[in-house]
Automatic annotation (TrEMBL):
Domain of life: Archaea
Protein name, per record: non-specific serine/threonine protein kinase
Family listed: Belongs to the protein kinase superfamily. RIO-type Ser/Thr kinase family.
Cell membrane as UniProt keyword: no
UniProt organism field: Metallosphaera yellowstonensis MK1
EC number: 2.7.11.1
GO molecular function: ATP binding; metal ion binding; protein serine/threonine kinase activity
Catalytic activity: L-threonyl-[protein] + ATP = O-phospho-L-threonyl-[protein] + ADP + H(+); L-seryl-[protein] + ATP = O-phospho-L-seryl-[protein] + ADP + H(+)
Known cofactor(s): Mg(2+)
Keyword match Acyltransferase: no
Keyword terms: ATP-binding, Kinase, Magnesium, Metal-binding, Nucleotide-binding, Serine/threonine-protein kinase, Transferase
Length: 286
């Protein structure tokens, strides 16, 4: 069912299916694929129930199947994580329903959603590292790393945006975190590279002020992937710095971020800021 939307995949997933997915997520062992008998013994599903669940989850793309030493064995996929995360955000009353896809990046998929008051929001589903996975000599792949990386990115992004927002920086308000999903306030705007700003200096100051908040109030936090693509601007020219999963405490990345953003404003608007002074400002020394 490759054409199903995530919302549709979630809609056909019932409690027993969730139990299977949750087991596969929470009991990630040494190997990626878990034999059917082990899933059955640990979820308490009957053979019949498990058969129905596994078939359905395979059809929705939530699981992959292979034979391990002759037994059908299963592994959770990114779609499986997305389904669990969507349910998690629902249970937290952050997200009532999902809408259409906003965009698909290399390591994430952003989808529109609605909260319980029908306000628009976005959910960013992280997806990192699985493709780069290599099989070992026994033909097994380890699941741990890509799941850990993916969940780590979601958590890092949520925590970074939370700290910056709480300290009055300009980011979309983070609304919730579940598994690999970060729910965010919807920003009605365009990426900075597509904007024609009336007051570029105000926008640049606002970006730099946000970097300063991250650095000074969030323990030296640096965005780490700043570019005109990761800044959104609304029609009142309010800016929002987005895309924080790689946020880290590394001063070298700060210099890179500053070069990228100052370079854009210099090239497009002729604004010439002094790099050293900006660095001091962002680090709270000026
Ligand atoms: N809060 C938001 N409101 C509206 N659109 C958003 C929001 N966050 C992200 N987007 C859209 O999704 C795109 C990708 O988001 P981003 O966080 O940059 O992820 P990535 O670049 O890793 O795919 C953005 O360029 C923007 O178009
Ligand atoms: Mg981006």
């Amino acid at each position: 069912m490759p054409s199903l939307t995530l919302a549709e995949r979630v809609a056909v997933t019932d409690q027993l299916d969730y139990a299977v997915l949750k087991y596969l997520l929470n009991n990630r062992g040494k190997f990626e694929y878990v034999p059917k008998s082990i899933i059955r013994d640990n979820t308490g599903l009957t053979n019949g129930e498990l058969e129905v669940s596994l078939l359905k989850l395979l059809k929705t793309g939530a699981l992959l199947k292979t034979k391990v030493r002759g037994e059908d064995s299963y592994s959770i996929t990114f779609t499986g994580l997305d389904i669990l995360a969507t349910k998690g955000l629902y249970a937290k009353r952050v997200l009532k329903r999902l809408g259409i896809v906003v965009g698909e990046g290399k390591e994430s998929q952003v989808v529109y959603g609605y909260d319980f008051d029908d306000n628009l929001l976005v959910v960013k589903f992280h997806r990192v590292g699985r493709r780069s996975y290599k099989r070992n000599v026994r033909g097994d792949t380890t699941i741990k790393d890509w799941v850990l990386k993916t969940l780590g990115n979601a958590r890092r992004e949520y925590e970074a945006m939370n700290c910056v927002k709480q300290n009055m920086g300009n980011v979309p308000k983070p609304l919730g975190l579940s598994i690999n999903a970060v729910a965010l306030e919807f920003v009605e705007g365009v990426q900075l590279n597509k904007a024609e700003l009336r007051d570029p200096q105000k926008a640049l100051d606002s970006v730099l002020g946000t970097l300063r908040v991250a650095y000074v109030y969030c323990g030296g936090l640096v965005h780490g992937d700043l570019s005109p693509y990761n800044v959104m601007v609304d029609s009142s020219e309010n800016v929002f710095v987005i895309d924080w999963p790689q946020a880290t405490r590394d001063d070298i990345l700060l210099i890179n971020d500053l070069k990228n953003i100052l370079g854009h404003f210099k090239e497009k608007y002729g604004l010439d800021y002094d790099m050293d002074r900006v660095e001091e400002y962002v680090k709270g020394k000026a």
